[in-house]
Amino acid sequence: MDIIVAGAGIVGVSCAIWLQRAGHSVTLVDRNGPGTGTSHGNAGVLAAGGVVPVTTPGLLVKAPGMLLSPDAPLFLRWAYLPKLLPFLARYLSHATDAHVRHYARAMGTLLHDSVDQHVALAAGTPAEKFIGREDYCFGYASRQAFDADAYAWGIRRESGVKFEVMDGAAYAAEDPIFGEAFGTVVRCRDHGRISDPGAYVRALAQHFVDEGGTLHITEITDVEVSDGEVTSLKTPEGALTADRIVFALGPWSKRIAHKLGVKVPFESERGYHIELLNPSAMPMNPVMVAAGKFVLTPMDGRIRAAGVVEFGGLDSGPSRAPFDLLRRQVRALLPQVEHDGIVEWMGHRPAPADSLPLIGANGAGGRSYSAFGHQHVGLTGGAKTGRIIADLITGRQPNIDLTPFDPQKHVARQA
């Protein structure tokens, strides 16, 4: 079949490669080029244990205080609040134990083999060199701080995530860059790291082109829909048509998805990172700094500190306060590390209200497919999502229950 994949982040590129390997003729469409958005700016962790959503019990009580604190990793552009309120109500309604367990069961099936999925995706390509099998660690200032996070670790344990709780001094003996910052460190096994996420996605996209795929840099301005099925994509150069169309536009998916009848409550969750260039020392593993809810990751020639949640829409530029918070936190954590400069970046995560990505056909006719909404785990789940979409389009039944990810689930619920 002739297939268009709209969006060239990790999810879209993965879809394109697996569809190409299945024998289809694939065109990858993106307005800026592969790996230039969220897939460039993430924390670079293959977080196989990412089975706990942001919306955990107690968030509703904590959120107001976090929004008012300059040292909390939650920000809001207050002028955007009127637009945000309907989504926010739905989002916070999922801060229940029942939903956390539902999310953990679903995401566990999608993420548990993430490193192996990326190895299979990149096999025989120049992108292989970016994949590592490092542990993913969580650093807590004290044992009491770790104990306070017992709910999340219980969910991970029930989901089969393998981890080891270590004394901070024992971990520092292996990875001395953090000194005495952590009293307790949790070391998650069977995880991994991408040493340069943007370069990784670009290498995969170049492999796709080298194998005969078409990369088309243009903006999708609209879609044509007939009888509930998409018939073409509108671009400044004209209409693009195909037998099947996959939408992997990340945070820019909402407007088109709603035209296709995918009525998912959806927002852009703005994320930030700073990078220390040519640092004088490197951490051994990626570490989630629990007190600040940001991840410190060793990357090629730099250390990246990525995190922060800000709600402010797609159109506004970056806010200063999240950058300042990350700078303060990194300076306090790594006071002895010298570097040649700091780079700042802000991007958008696609955030459905229930935090579950949309993976599957948008209608009974199977003309178009959704592959977006992975929130904090787009890199982690991107490779497997691409394989699932390729299986669905090719007529093979994926070995995973896709019901929690059904793009039509919200329509059915409203009916």
TrEMBL record:
<dbReference type="InterPro" id="IPR036188">
    <property type="entry name" value="FAD/NAD-bd_sf"/>
</dbReference>
<dbReference type="GO" id="GO:0016491">
    <property type="term" value="F:oxidoreductase activity"/>
</dbReference>
<dbReference type="Pfam" id="PF01266">
    <property type="entry name" value="DAO"/>
</dbReference>
<dbReference type="GO" id="GO:0005737">
    <property type="term" value="C:cytoplasm"/>
</dbReference>
<feature type="domain" description="FAD dependent oxidoreductase">
    <location>
        <begin position="2"/>
        <end position="392"/>
    </location>
</feature>
<dbReference type="InterPro" id="IPR006076">
    <property type="entry name" value="FAD-dep_OxRdtase"/>
</dbReference>
<protein>
    <submittedName>
        <fullName>D-amino-acid dehydrogenase</fullName>
    </submittedName>
</protein>
<keyword id="KW-0560">Oxidoreductase</keyword>
